[in-house]
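Fold this: LysM domain-containing protein
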Amino acid sequence: MTNKRGGGSRIKINTVARRLHHYNGDRLIKEYPVAVGKPSTPTPPGDYHIKNKIVNPGGMLGTRWMGMSIPGGNYGIHGTNNPSSIGQAVSHGCVRMYNHHVEELFPQISIGTPVHIYARSGPSSNPAHKTGGGGKTYTVKPGDTLWQIAQSFNVSLEALVAANNLADPDRIVPGQVIVIP
């Protein structure tokens, strides 16, 4: 749990893609869709750690709370009583997860687990857009499936999954940026 470089559990949160990645060392264990802070109360980027954990905190915090060591506020990774918010930028800075996802992650995370929050920029809302490396990206729209995206860009589903390091190709969310290989 403690070694940031070699082994142990760690969490990376991309606030642009609205995804939480759980790693054991350098191996991705699972990727989850999340809700993050709205523009007026953003989720602060930086390197933190889990400082406390609570089972059944109640109300809008859902079924689990993992407090982060972010200065100047009470920020956490938690469940939600509003599952339709997942995939959106709507919180007061916390990271919301579906209750069943936070319940799955919770027992795997210890006090002290490193959390890296970052904003990896992708293209804006243009559906197809050139990246600096010459590849294209696509911003997922409501109702899209990865299979439909693969067909529309004439690439294989397997290539899309590999290019985007998707742990679960059935879980893409509106606003997520997909790299087209």
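The chain has two domains: 9-118, 128-180. The longest strand covers residues 46-55.
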